[in-house]
């Protein structure tokens, strides 16, 4: 595989490890990136691992993936629940998209129960903690191996 899988992270995920550890655990985003890079190497899959607190930057990265990505793993964080621009950009992407949440959003307050991103996602992983990231990469690798389009 020559095209990378984009692993995109939204706002406040740079604070993992110190932000609400009772919800998100003590694993840092750097730890998650290391886990993803190790899994991607084992799968022979290049990745682009990124984090931003800016909605526009996240949209720009999705546009970049549209032009040259094999898949997207996206943890849009708070943008999951209110970003039509992110949804619209993802709807153009024709390869697998896995929406990922560290916590189980369905066990949390009602505001977290409806994700706009889910309307474009091939699959959703929620509640596996940081371990959801390598699982998502395994799933994308399998989908690409089977030649499955995103939708």
From TrEMBL:
Lineage per the UniProt record: Bacteria, Pseudomonadati, Pseudomonadota, Alphaproteobacteria, Rhodospirillales
Keyword Amino-acid biosynthesis applies: yes
Family: Belongs to the type-II 3-dehydroquinase family.
Annotated Gene3D superfamilies: Dehydroquinase, class II
Protein name (database record): 3-dehydroquinate dehydratase
Function: Catalyzes a trans-dehydration via an enolate intermediate.
The protein's assembly and partners: Homododecamer.
Keywords, sorted A to Z: Amino-acid biosynthesis, Aromatic amino acid biosynthesis, Lyase
MF-aspect GO terms: 3-dehydroquinate dehydratase activity
Binding, substrate: 75, 88, 102-103
Catalysed conversion reaction: 3-dehydroquinate = 3-dehydroshikimate + H2O
Keyword set includes Phosphoprotein: no
Pathway annotation: Metabolic intermediate biosynthesis; chorismate biosynthesis; chorismate from D-erythrose 4-phosphate and phosphoenolpyruvate: step 3/7
Natural source organism: Thalassobaculum fulvum
Group of enzyme by EC: lyase
């Amino acid at each position: 595989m020559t095209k990378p899988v984009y692993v995109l992270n939204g706002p406040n995920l740079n604070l993992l490890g110190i932000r609400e550890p009772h919800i998100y655990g003590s694993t840092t985003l750097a730890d998650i990136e290391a886990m993803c890079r190790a899994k991607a190497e084992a799968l022979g899959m290049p990745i682009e691992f990124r984090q931003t607190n800016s909605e526009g930057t996240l949209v720009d990265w999705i546009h970049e993936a549209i032009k040259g990505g094999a898949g997207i793993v996206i943890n849009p964080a708070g943008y999951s629940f209110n970003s039509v621009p992110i949804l619209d950009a993802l709807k153009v992407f024709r390869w697998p998209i896995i929406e990922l949440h560290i916590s189980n959003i369905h066990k949390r307050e009602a505001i977290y129960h409806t994700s706009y991103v889910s309307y474009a996602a091939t699959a959703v992983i929620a509640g596996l903690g940081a371990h959801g990231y390598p699982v998502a990469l395994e799933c994308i690798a399998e989908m690409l191996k089977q030649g499955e389009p995103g939708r």
